[in-house]
Amino acid sequence: MLASNLMAPRGLALLGCGWIARRHAAAARRLGVPLLAASRDAARAAAFAREFGAAAAFGSYEEATRDPRAAGAIVCTPHDRHLADARLALDAGLHVLVEKPIAPTLEEADHMIAAARSAGRILMVAENFHFMPAFRWVHALVARGGLGRLRELHLVARGFRQPSGWRLEPAAAGGGVLIDGGIHYVHNLRRWGGEVRRVFAARPPQTVRIGGEDAVDVLAELPDGVVGFLANSIGARGVSRVQWSTVTGSDGTCFVDNRGRWALVRGIAGTRGRLFLRDTRGHERMLSAFVDAMATGAAPDCDGSSGRRDLAVVLAVYRSICERRAVDVEC
Ligand SMILES: NC(=O)c1ccc[n+]([C@@H]2O[C@H](COP(=O)([O-])OP(=O)(O)OC[C@H]3O[C@@H](n4cnc5c(N)ncnc54)[C@H](OP(=O)(O)O)[C@@H]3O)[C@@H](O)[C@H]2O)c1
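A: This is the predicted complex of the input protein with NAP.
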């Protein structure tokens, strides 16, 4: 790394050296963004920094956020830590890219949004589905009327996995699968179909040990009578690893691989497909968007209010499950 790069305040402090931090670190290395790796454990931070060629390693989040090389921070900690860790970074004058969900409650999300506003700093939620090339392609197709009048969205993401660590603690995770991996599909539902107005949800009997639901089925009312269906599970043994989301309009249907490797459209205009080979998970594009927003001060895609809207749908689903009735999504 060049000395001039290290001197410039354009580094990103990575708070927490767990699983998703590896994706951010790999993207930062490919983009040449200096990284300051921070862990509660100095040895872990040092090993992480060596592996990803980070500019520095810290045994405390505080130290990393106060380093003069840092311009922003990426919060990669458990859900109940997001507000405190984002505030730590904002108080140090840094811009913040916080992992999804923005927070486990709307109240915490509101505090974070207000804190970023009063600090005059960018707050962006790391919703990588928004930046995945295949999902952007679907969004563009729907937006230009390529499927005709929108009718239905079926988003199915089911598999089998036993989570561990903080995901077993209800207070740390704030829920089960939907607030964790499932919130990505909530984002796609909103992005492709418009704001979710009302949901009815149910959960099947639990099979996997986790702090919340291991599966959920959601029926959603979207604008103009469009219907959304979202099935999300980590308790479904034996299902195919290849899964896709389906968007149907009056003129045809689009199928898109949940991992963002391909998309297919069939309908009155015939059949066509697309393969996506580069940055399929959108991490480079997302980090570039954050770096650009830090440089320009312009509100990024997936700002705090977008993350809050995704969270509001998740929390309405949880209320619907508890109250066994359809629930309006809080604006
Ligand atoms: N976008 C995606 O596709 C995606 C995928 C997975 C996860 N995520 C999100 O990323 C965040 C982290 O998830 P993860 O899967 O990376 O979890 P993880 O592997 O457990 O990493 C979380 C890290 O947070 C730090 N931490 C701070 N306080 C902690 C505490 N009280 N208990 C446990 N860890 C604590 C730890 O890092 P140190 O020990 O180094 O301090 C830990 O390694 C969550 O918001 C999650 O929803 C996003």
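The first strand starts at residue 11 and ends at 15. The longest helix spans residues 304-323.
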